[in-house]
Amino acid sequence: MASYVAAIDQGTTSSRCMIFDHSGRVVAVNQKEHRQLFPKAGWVEHDPLEIWDNVRQVCAGALASADLVSSDIAACGITNQRETTVVWDKATGKPVYNAIVWQDTRTDEIVSELGATEGQNRFQSKTGLPLATYFSGPKVKWMLDNVDGIRERAEKGELLFGNMDTWVLWNCTGGPDGGLHVTDPTNASRTLLMDLETLQWDPEICAEIGIPMSMLPEIRSSSEVYGQFRERGVFAGIPIAGILGDQQAATFGQACLSPGEAKNTYGTGNFVLLNTGTERVLSDNGLLTTVGYKIGTNDTVYCLEGSIAVTGSLVQWMRDNLGMIGSAPEIEQVARSVDDNGGAYFVPAFSGLFAPHWRSDARGAIVGLTRYVNRGHLARAVLEATAFQTREVIEAMNADSGVPLKSLKVDGGMVVNELLMQFQADILGVPVIRPVVNETTALGAAYAAGLAVGFWGSEADIRSNWAKDKQWDPSMTDEVREKQYRDWQKAVTKTFDWVE
């Protein structure tokens, strides 16, 4: 009898495969980074074929590291970097262009044109989303308009579109030889093309943006058996039974299964999701309304989301572009060499500002510099930027929901940074709670797959698996907290209107 469930976690900087037991504990993990391609300022791309090759390698590596075979795995789920857009030839499996990554801002003119007469919220009532460079639909339009010959091929039905979940699933299930062209509502809700109520592609919006509907994958639930891995490969025959976009997967893995429960994932960017139950809450404060998950035939669960573009990637930028640290964990040690930020604030608007501002004209800025500021102060300002941006989103969420946050569950790579976690609790004024398994993105996808095949009986099993590892309580005075936040808000205004 199969004793484990696997998850493929195709992220912004790497792909990995994780294997979990029934208690939700990690049995094996294998991970491989892929290249970040920056052909022009504001452009970010990935090579889809490199990513698919890495996915195959990490699946094999995870099995081997735990000395398991495919028959030990009951099912596999997929979770992915959302909004990153791939278009490929369905006959050959060859992408027509590199994947355009969610951080990419090249579609700014397209977005401005779409909102020229009816404004940024033109499609919000149906999609829950503002017009922004973040989402997949404008990225597809850019490819159709700028890559020679592909609009004609798309209109002939020769090309397929998908976020990374669809690209991985199609290849896992056979590619040109019968691969499944499928997505789930969490990913479809990030395209600007799906009706949140019907969970179907909206023909009017597709026509207005200029995307042939023949390109679009079938939308199925987040937890059901879609098919099996192709006969070639180490995962041959394993059912693929769950798909969740990475932030929804983390929400599910954190057991935020009731209205009012929220989590924040600290990864390349930060993403705060609040479960609003079966009610679609449209935001008046710059947040996104998104599908949280749909388990089989159960009612759809929705979330409010605050998306922050640059948090962990700012640490990576300090390491790779400036050479100020040798490794990401080193930033905590450097930041601890000083007692505060020395008056310096770093607003990392590298891709504009996401929630709650949605300013694609913004660009990054360091403000408050004096001769006193040193490397330690800048390291601390980098970490504090993550916490300040999170507070902006939490305040918007409190305003939209009418329910003040009482605590925050956290996960992702940055939650091992204890200085950051303490400052996050301080600047929010609420406890911050880290679970035993902090990489909950893969765990959430595993849960979705396991529920579909009966490996876990119900969502109650997910709740019982969740366990607290550590809690940080606020220790900052209200006066200091509000002074620092006011200075942050002032710093944010200095990034506006940079791009004309």
From TrEMBL:
It holds the Pfam family FGGY_N. GO terms for biological process: glycerol catabolic process; glycerol-3-phosphate metabolic process. The keyword Methyltransferase does not apply. It catalyses: glycerol + ATP = sn-glycerol 3-phosphate + ADP + H(+). Residues 4-253 form the Carbohydrate kinase FGGY N-terminal domain. Key enzyme in the regulation of glycerol uptake and metabolism. Catalyzes the phosphorylation of glycerol to yield sn-glycerol 3-phosphate. Belongs to the FGGY kinase family. This is Glycerol kinase. It comes from Saccharopolyspora dendranthemae.
